[in-house]
Amino acid sequence: MTGNKRQESIPVHHLTSSSFLVFTIENTNDETFNGLHRHDFFELIWFTKSDTNESVEIDFTPHRFNDNEICLLTPGQVFQMEKSKQQGFVLAFAKDLFHELTGNRSFFTDVGRPISLGQDSLNAIQSLLPLIINEYNGQKRIALLKSYLQAFLFHVLTTVDALHEAGDSRLNKLFQLIDTHFLQQRETAFYAGHLNTSAKYLNSILKRERSVTIKELVSQRLVLEAKREIYFGELTLKEIAFKLGFSDPAYFSRFFKVQTGKSAEHFKASIQRLHL
């Protein structure tokens, strides 16, 4: 895994010659985690021992992880973790491999949130990981390694699915729709129509399960994309506004400030100060 830069202030971590890597947190150099950076691959971090005094920053939001909780990062996310007392394992997957193993599912609502495993799933991944490491460091039989990885991810993602199933099954479909269409579609009626339900009913489920409305969820996704674009530094604020579907850059600026409490210019300046 390497860190490259499209611009001086934009580190991007890549997988190099392998479609999969596994290593421990404690035996990895600090550059792997320190400093805001982004990935072009999927990364799963299993904290076997965490330090709740330290936060993990994902897409500019701090998260705290407890022992035996898992963090799932997707390509394009901005990430930073200061190493201190954390212990655990990191599994990095090239995009094609991860999609093959997981069936091209969407992770918009799961990324960044601590995944707490039940005891059965925890026992399973504790048994599977030594098999993965031994095969990875040994004969590297691809079919066998993929079967271990698929089983490992199954137990992790089963926990995520159980959280969704505790509410209404349509929510996960809604999250996938928003992740696919948020740039073009912002109206509640579009998403309700695709799920064959009324906007009122769908909003009532969201309010109960996530304390948000469809409109608020779409706005959150737009703000996340705006923050990433600002951080990547390749476009002006005016260009970002147009890319996100705002015909008026001034309206985009007002929208960003209402959603985040700070102007896009202020957010951009704060990012630039991090790299002075």
Description:
Residues 172-270 form the HTH araC/xylS-type domain. It comes from Pontibacter ummariensis. With 276 residues, the chain is an alpha+beta fold. The chain folds into 2 domains: 2-164, Regulatory protein AraC (Jelly Rolls, Sandwich), CATH 2.60.120.280; 170-274, Homeodomain-like (Arc Repressor Mutant, subunit A, Orthogonal Bundle). Helix content is 47%, strand content 17%. The strands form 2 sheets. The protein has a 6-stranded mixed β-sheet with strand order 1-2-4-9-6-7, with no helix packed on it. The longest helix is centred in the middle third of the chain and has 24 residues, at 142-165. The protein is globular. The model is unreliable at 3-10 (pLDDT under 50).
